[in-house]
Design a protein that fits this description.
Molybdenum Cofactor Biosythetic Enzyme, Chain A, 2 domains, seven-stranded mixed sheet, Rossmann fold, single chain, eight-stranded parallel sheet, about 450 residues, about 40% helix, 15 helices, alpha/beta
Length: about 450
């Protein structure tokens, strides 16, 4: 029986939202015919998507179509109701939101809050300051604003979302979300208890959607999601257990051997966006060798291997985030009658040894991110890999593939030069690997079901 019901205003949008659910192991079905009774929907399809073809019709027609779909398919097992809207806010948003809320109120005697997140950052749609921008251009100045059937005359999200609605609404700005999950949950609760039944939120980055999803669940309010797809997908990943038997998804080990200032900025952005268990491996202790080398490694391994079970990202780094703290390898080499290559080798061998021990522990590391050329080579050699089977790029100068040979045959890996990319680069790579691991787990589960 389905546990997620999405009512979309057109078919292509319905399919686009449904595909996002696949990442979380859900099995979506888009209906293209008459509405069946809930019991007639094939077992095993846990996300049901209904297109109403209501974007360009009269508001009262749109209302009735959404009401009919929601009323016909609402069921006690459904844990997530979503009103899918256009990513450029065209159509009958207010009447359709009212219709879903009204239908659910009639069916289950509930009084839900419509949490509206109009952003789709991955597609260039961001909401900030109460405005929607499309690829950096204000919505009303974009090409879609001149749609002959559903033109858009403003960029104000609250105005577009509530046009034609009978419900009180509030806009929650970006800084409310940036104050943290608890602060945003409190703001949602305050809005609801003040009589608002529509809350429109800003978001400019994918992780903002995850923060909002966490806050909605923390607020413990009856709600529906209203968005172009990614916010609902984030909620689905949290609300709807899949066939994985409740096991945690594999985590990503981020290995950052570059100490350049750019890498430090990228790490700061990663830490801002996600909870990361980080082990700092002091290069000076690795250079010292002997017992200091061993102790530094064991401390880092202990930090990473005792991370909470639900940790998504582990990070091993020699970058202390201080752009002025740069090792003078040449001076260090002279002081110990060695050369720069040997000194650098001690650092990279320490990193590689730590990685090997972390991967050898009883952990659920599923993928590697490696930053810095010398670090990457040292890790590959330590793991016994004979090569990297390249698959595609993640960003310019950032490659994705899987290991060939060695103790971690087939492990997904992203490699990046230390100075490559802007401040979001590590964060983007981390999210890419996390989602790639989830997609692979779904594919394996489905393959097992078919075999």
């Amino acid at each position: 029986m389905y546990r997620c019901l999405i009512v979309a205003d057109d078919l292509t949008g319905a399919n686009a939202s449904g595909v996002l659910l696949k990442t979380f192991g859900l099995s979506p079905l888009t209906l293209t015919g008459d509405l069946p009774p809930p019991t007639a929907v094939r077992a095993g399809r846990d996300a049901l998507i209904v297109p109403t073809d209501s974007r360009a019709v009269a508001p009262e027609v749109a209302y009735r179509r959404v009401w009919d779909a929601t009323s016909a398919l609402a069921a006690p097992e459904v844990r997530l109701y979503t009103k899918r809207i256009d990513s450029t806010l065209r159509g009958n948003l207010g009447p359709e939101i009212d219709a879903m809320l009204d239908a659910l109120a009639a069916v289950e005697d509930s009084d839900r809050l419509a949490v509206v997140v109009p952003a789709y950052p991955q597609a260039g749609r961001v909401a900030a300051g109460g405005y929607l921008l499309v690829n950096g251009v204000m919505l009303q100045r974009s090409d879609v604003a001149r749609d002959p059937k559903t033109p858009v005359l403003t960029s104000r999200t609250l105005e577009l979302v509530t046009a034609g609605s009978r419900r009180a609404a509030v806009h929650l700005p970006l800084e409310t979300g940036y104050a943290g999950v608890d602060a945003l949950a409190a703001a949602l609760g305050a809005a609801y208890h003040s009589g608002n039944r529509i809350a429109v939120l800003d978001a400019v980055q994918p992780e903002d959607l995850e923060t909002i999803a966490d806050a909605v669940l923390a607020a413990d309010l009856p709600f529906i999601a209203v968005d172009p797809g990614p916010f609902s997908a984030a909620l689905a990943g949290r609300l709807l257990p899949t066939a994985s038997g409740g096991q945690s998804r594999p985590c990503v080990l981020l290995v950052v051997g570059s100490v350049v200032a750019t890498t430090g900025e990228q790490l700061r952005e990663l830490y801002r966006a996600y909870d990361v268990t980080t082990a700092y491996l002091d290069p000076a202790r690795l250079i010292a060798g002997g017992a200091d080398w061993e102790t530094a490694i064991q401390e880092a391994v202990a930090t990473l291997t005792t991370a909470p079970a639900d940790t998504e990202f582990l990070c091993l780094t020699t970058n202390c985030l201080d752009p002025t703290a740069c090792l003078d390898l040449e001076a260090i080499a002279r002081g110990c009658a060695s050369d720069k290559e040997a000194v650098s080798g001690l650092i990279n061998q320490g990193i590689a040894t730590t990685v090997e021990q972390v991967l050898g522990a009883a952990l659920r590391v599923g993928g590697l991110y490696l930053s810095g050329g010398d670090t990457t080579v040292a890790v590959f050699r330590r793991l016994g890999a004979i090569g990297l089977v390249l698959e595609r790029d993640v960003l310019p100068l950032v490659a994705y593939g899987h290991l060939m040979g060695g103790r971690c045959e087939g492990m997904p890996v992203v490699t990046k030069g230390g100075a490559a990319g802007d401040k979001d680069a590590i964060k983007i790579c981390a999210r890419f690997l996390r989602d790639e691991l989830a997609s692979q787990a779904v594919a394996r589960a489905q393959s097992g079901e078919l075999s």
